[in-house]
């Protein structure tokens, strides 16, 4: 593991990967700030306002719960400690998880005692409720605070308790969340829904039916979760009162600071949003989003696509929601229901980034004075989906992105100081995932197969590509042999047409 990290660090240094540096930013009136203190104050002002609690919604706490769930076992603490990823930046206390893992059984005993105390009293150490936020620039003007996303560093010791609490919650979450939600769930991912939507478009063309999609974008969904509404939703979903009380007390009085290139801001209170960097946040948000969909009545709605006797009208990955219907009127009705229920719990749609796509005729919509734009294609969870279902556009795009990666690696791949097995390993790790992302949903022409083979041969001067169809596997595996007999597996489905 250590050698792998060192290898990729050398690659980043050799490539000269861009590292964003935070310079001047603008205040709320659009005036450039250049002084360190002014920049720090602006970041604190922005984040405080972003996470400010709604004063009209008081927190009605039930107090300490006496009907407790089963005690935490030492083996749970040991499992949680071993499952925490190493080589991660530590939180405000500066204590890395590696220290606990070195101490082994002694650390397990101490952490078990602390976790058990929290379990019984439902009170968390204040250091475990603190986060260090680091702004990372997104697309757009890097002088606007709103064009940054923040990552949060939390105490590594707290992650042990959070892992245990997540495991206790998971059985309830799995029971409540439907298959349509693929976000943060074991055995599911973006590629599943990419394949689903491609299959739906292809089947609609086969049966000569029009299909209508709405790709919903929320404005800072995770940061706008209302805490009091979240506790009510958890209770409705059947989460035990003891676990809800632990979560409520974790969120009560939590603090954060923003670490900038000009220093760190003062600590301030967080009043809304799920905790960043916390393993519990994906589970909590999925339950929050499920509440919206249930109240919108999507499961009972007649609008949608009929598949094997089942009505499907949405696909979800965390906050990214795609609505589907067989007519424009039905789709708009679904969107308005979701919009209404989302606003009831504090989530707002970003209409400018919400798009509609259809295989039939469609016009732009006016919602709340803003226009929902119709598009002929959409980048759907990293894959280009077109209204006609033609995947050749996506294949060209993936090959272009793959060549871009290879161009960045050019100095390394052409170096005589680096062994061929190392180069093979780099290509497999950095080029193949880009070129073959979402490939299981492709229908590939023979000419496109040759282009893919040529692209994947080029970085290592592969001499031949030998197709092999493994027994019992639905995928074609192409094994490329270089002059050094190094094998490179490439996988895509057997949907090949001339």
TrEMBL record:
Q: Note the Gene3D superfamilies from the entry.
A: 3.30.70.270
- The Reverse transcriptase domain extends over 117-385
Spell out the family assignment given in the record's similarity comment.
Belongs to the beta type-B retroviral polymerase family. HERV class-II K(HML-2) pol subfamily.
Protein name according to UniProt: Reverse transcriptase domain-containing protein
Q: What is the lineage of its organism?
A: Eukaryota, Metazoa, Chordata, Craniata, Vertebrata
């Amino acid at each position: 593991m250590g050698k792998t990290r060192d290898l990729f660090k050398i690659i980043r240094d050799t490539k000269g990967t861009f590292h964003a540096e935070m310079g001047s930013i603008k205040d709320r009136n659009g005036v450039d700030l250049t002084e360190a203190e002014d920049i720090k104050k602006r970041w604190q002002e922005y984040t405080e306002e972003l996470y400010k609690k709604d004063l009209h919604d008081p927190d009605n706490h039930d107090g300490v719960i006496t009907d407790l769930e089963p005690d935490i076992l030492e083996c749970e603490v040991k499992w949680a400690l071993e499952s925490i990823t190493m080589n991660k930046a530590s939180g405000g206390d500066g204590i890395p998880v590696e220290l606990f893992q070195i101490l082994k059984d002694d650390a397990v005993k101490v952490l078990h005692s602390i976790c058990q105390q929290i379990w019984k009293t439902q009170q968390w150490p204040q250091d475990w409720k603190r986060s260090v936020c680091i702004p990372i620039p997104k697309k757009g003007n890097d002088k606007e605070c709103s064009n940054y996303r923040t990552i949060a560093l939390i105490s590594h010791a707290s992650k042990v308790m959070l892992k245990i609490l997540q495991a206790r919650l998971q059985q309830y979450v799995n029971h409540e969340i439907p298959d349509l939600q693929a976000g943060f769930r074991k055995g599911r991912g973006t590629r599943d829904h990419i394949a689903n939507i491609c299959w739906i478009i292809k089947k609609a063309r086969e049966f000569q039916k029009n299909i209508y999609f709405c790709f919903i974008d929320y404005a800072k969904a995770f940061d706008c979760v209302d805490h009091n509404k979240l506790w009510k939703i958890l209770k409705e979903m059947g989460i035990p009162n003891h676990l809800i009380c632990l979560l409520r007390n974790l969120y009560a009085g939590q603090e954060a600071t923003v670490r900038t290139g000009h220093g760190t801001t003062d600590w301030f209170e967080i009043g809304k949003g799920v905790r960043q960097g916390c393993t519990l946040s994906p589970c909590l948000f999925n339950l929050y989003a499920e509440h919206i969909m249930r109240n919108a009545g999507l499961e009972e709605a007649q609008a949608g696509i009929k598949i094997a006797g089942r009505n499907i009208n949405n696909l979800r990955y965390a906050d990214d929601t795609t609505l589907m219907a067989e007519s424009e009127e039905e789709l708009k009705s679904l969107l308005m229901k979701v919009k209404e229920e989302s606003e009831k719990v504090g989530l707002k749609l970003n209409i400018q980034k919400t798009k509609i796509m259809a295989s039939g005729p469609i016009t732009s919509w006016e919602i709340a004075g803003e226009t929902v734009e119709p598009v002929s294609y959409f980048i759907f969870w990293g894959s280009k989906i077109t209204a006609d279902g033609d995947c050749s556009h996506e294949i060209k795009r993936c090959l272009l992105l793959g060549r871009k990666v290879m161009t960045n690696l050019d100095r390394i791949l052409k170096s005589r100081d680096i062994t061929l097995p190392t180069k093979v390993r780099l290509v497999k790790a950095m080029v193949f995932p880009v070129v073959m992302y979402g490939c299981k949903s492709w229908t590939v022409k023979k000419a496109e197969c040759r282009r893919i083979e040529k692209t994947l041969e080029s970085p290592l001067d592969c001499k031949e590509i030998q197709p092999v169809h493994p027994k019992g596997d639905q995928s074609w595996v192409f094994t490329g042999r270089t002059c050094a007999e190094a094998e490179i597996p490439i996988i895509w489905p057997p949907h090949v047409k001339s």
